[in-house]
Amino acid sequence: MELERKDEILDKILSVEVLDAMADWVKVVNINGKILYANQALKDAVGYDPTGSNTDDLDDFLKLDTSETASAIEKNEIIQKELNIGENYYQVKCSPIYDDKMNPIAIVEVFRDVTRERVLELQLIQSNENVFHDMEITKRIQKSILPVKAKYKNIAIDYLYEATETLSGDMFDIFEVEKDTYVIYIADVAGHGIAASMLTMFIRQTVRNLNKDNYEPELALKYISDKFLELNLQSDRYITLFYGVYYAKTEEFVYANAGHNSMPIIFNDNKISVLEAKGRPILSVDLGNNYEVKKTALRAGDKLFLYTDGIVESKNVHGEEFGLDRLIKTILSKPNKLLKAIDIAVLQYSFGDQRDDFAMLLVDIDKMK
């Protein structure tokens, strides 16, 4: 009778030849826990034929939780789980078998070795954790090299610096290159992420290496461009950079623009002006580098505002950019905290959807002592 029942059960599943050809382990267990069938792959794995044995007599790695097996029968559902046994991972599927009257008579249990997939998955998780950890360190370093919000003789600076990702492709700095002579610049690297952030550090280090012989705008931009070419990067890598030199004693600001379309603004209580100058971005291919150099007065009471395109290119739901006109309107409203006011105006305009890095640097000029 039991043999006939076994044949009836096996007739309800794939042929023995097909099951024996499978790489997965397959066993058929009746509702009493007796193994009616084990395929060849399973026999090879355990070194013997477990047919006729009770499930409880098998090695641990071939046992399933009987409550789950019972659940598969009672609920008329397929149970899937994953077992971690030793160093291996198995995906196990329990499927009930019913007779013609829909009475449960057995369970088909299929064991699939997914160790390789799980190991790769765990390695990927670990790798991602390592990358995230490295990015956090890089983020701290990147922020640590920004200038201190403070007053330098007759110059006070403030800024906001935000990245769409953990790392930013924007960089700015201000430092005294000679007595009472200050280099002021802002840069935007094409792209985001680790590569862009590393290039911001390249910019900062390269500009800081300028000296009394090459800090003037045209010479400085050519020097930076030459150093960038030496990196031998792909052609889609480039930098836009606005670079200026402030001579405190003569109250003069000399500047040039390497493709930075977010043109800085000088303003005071009486007037506002946009600093325009022509020049192509700093590219990873040599197309020559001619930069238009201009000069303007920068006196006590003036403020110099530098920013990146994440401000003016922020878009609303209709795809319209925030733009230079709205930026100037915000400046003319004379808020107590200008940078915060611009930040709020941009976020409200774009409904908080920040699509690009942005940086804002405000330089406030006071009287020389």
Explain this structure.
This protein has 369 residues and is of the alpha+beta class. The chain has two domains: 1-118, Beta-Lactamase, CATH 3.30.450.20; 146-365, Phosphatase 2c, domain 1 (4-Layer Sandwich). It is 32% helix and 30% strand. The strands form three sheets. Strands 6-7-17-16-12-13 form a six-stranded antiparallel β-sheet. Strands 8, 9, 10, 11, 14 and 15 form a six-stranded antiparallel β-sheet that branches.
Topology:
Elements: H1 2-11, H2 16-21, E1 25-30, E2 35-38, H3 40-46, H4 66-74, E3 79-85, E4 88-98, E5 104-113, H5 115-144, E6 151-152, E7 155-162, E8 170-178, E9 181-189, H6 193-208, H7 217-230, E10 238-247, E11 252-258, E12 265-267, E13 272-274, E14 282-283, E15 293-297, E16 303-307, H8 309-312, H9 323-332, H10 338-349, E17 358-365
Antiparallel strand pairs: 1-2, 1-5, 3-4, 4-5, 6-7, 7-17, 8-9, 9-10, 10-11, 10-14, 11-15, 12-13, 12-16, 16-17
Helix pairs in contact: 5-6
Short descriptors:
single chain; 369 residues; alpha+beta; Beta-Lactamase; Phosphatase 2c, domain 1; 2 domains; 6-stranded antiparallel β-sheet; 10 helices; elongated
Give me a quick take on this structure.
The protein is of the alpha+beta class and 369 residues long. Helix content is 32%, strand content 30%. β10 and β11 form a beta hairpin.
List the total number of helices.
Answer: 10
Using only CA atoms, what is the Rg?
Answer: 35 Å
DSSP helix fraction? 25-40%
CATH fold label of the largest domain: Phosphatase 2c, domain 1
Q: What is the annotated CATH architecture of the largest domain?
A: 4-Layer Sandwich
- Per DSSP, what share of the residues sits in E-state strands of 2 or more residues? 25-35%
Task: Give me the oligomer status.
Answer: single chain
Number of strands: 17
Structural class: alpha+beta
Distance between the termini: 109 Å
Q: What's the CATH superfamily of the largest domain, by name?
A: PPM-type phosphatase domain
| Morphology | elongated
Write the element-wise H/E pattern from the N-terminal end onward: HHEEHHEEEHEEEEHHEEEEEEEHHHE
Overall tally of domains = 2
